[in-house]
Write a structure and sequence with these properties.
11 helices; Pantoate--beta-alanine Ligase, Chain: A,domain 2; binds pantoate; about 40% helix; 6-stranded parallel β-sheet
Length: about 290
């Protein structure tokens, strides 16, 4: 496995290949990332991963400075998972000057849910992903694939739409969320949890499963009853000491609230949630 730190070295390393399959990450890798790396291998002739903690997608009060940076352990894991090239640029390589050209995703998809609670988050994500795509795919001549985890459900939808609108010749592949034995979605931020918080953390996924069950049971009256069901699920988490941002049922196609016409196709829905436990903000979702 080759580790490169500059865009020039990355392009040199990828020049002999036609069809990169790319897994962008911010490092501190877990099984969810490694699963994407393994899924990438049959899709191309070289498997590439990036490790870059992207300042642009963090608000000033968020955890950019404390985000775990574990390059050596990440490289060991990537090598064992079959990655061929790791791109780990320094900040001054990717942003040698303030990044003033930015990708602004559409409000209907990017200013709701995560984008509502983390304003500017998807601008930062789209901008860095667009830039990483330019670095990784510029030498490609064959099929190009990029893989994202469904744990960041809205993120992979925003990126899919960006790729479609800019006519980028890249196929976006979404990988299933990997979970711990108790059902907690794997996340780099789980490492922030204390022992007691870690034991409690699974309650977010349980609350979402409960909300999905309630929504299915009330499918016929869904648009009318939904606000009540969501409020009840959020209240139940709040009474356990969580600070929920949202627990909600949305359409998979556009992340908008379901309409009466969606009642007959509950499999077109997804439940999504974000909540803070102590100082740690967790997100999760389930496709119904
Ligand atoms: O999901 C992530 O880890 C990040 O948002 C991404 C896609 C690597 C962009 O920084």
């Amino acid at each position: 496995m080759k580790l490169v730190h500059t865009i020039e070295d990355l392009r040199t390393a990828l020049r002999p290949f036609d069809a990169p399959a790319f897994v962008p990450t911010m490092g501190n890798l877990h099984e969810g990332h490694l699963d994407l790396v393994r899924a990438a291998q049959p899709l191309g002739d070289v498997t590439v991963s990036s490790i870059f903690v992207n300042r642009l997608q963090f608000a000033p009060h968020e955890d950019f400075d404390s985000y775990p940076r574990t390059l050596q352990a990440d490289c060991d894991r990537l090598e064992r998972a079959g990655c061929d090239v790791v791109f780990a640029p320094l900040e001054k390589e990717l942003y040698p000057e303030p990044q003033v050209f930015k990708v602004h995703p559409p409000a209907d998809l990017a200013d709701i849910l995560e984008g509502h609670f983390r304003p500017g988050f998807f601008i930062g994500v789209c901008t860095v992903v667009m830039k990483l795509f330019q670095c990784v795919f510029s030498e490609a001549k064959g099929p190009r694939h990029a893989l994202f985890g469904k744990k960041d459900y809205q993120q992979q939808m925003v990126i899919r739409r960006m790729v479609q609108q800019f006519a980028l010749p890249i196929t976006i592949v979404a990988g299933e969320t990997q979970r711990a034995a108790d059902g907690l979605a794997l996340s780099s931020r789980n490492g922030y949890l204390s022992e007691s918080e870690r034991a409690e953390a699974v309650q977010l996924s349980l609350a979402l499963r409960g909300l999905a069950r309630d929504a299915l049971a009330a499918a016929d009256a869904l648009p009318r009853q939904l606000a009540g069901l969501e409020a009840r699920a959020m209240h139940a988490l709040a009474t356990r000491g969580w600070q929920p941002d949202y627990l909600t049922v949305r359409r998979r196609a556009d992340l908008q609230p379901p309409q009466a016409s969606d009642a007959s196709t509950p499999q077109s829905l997804v439940v999504l949630g974000a909540a803070r436990l102590g100082n740690t903000r967790l997100i999760d979702n389930f496709e119904i």
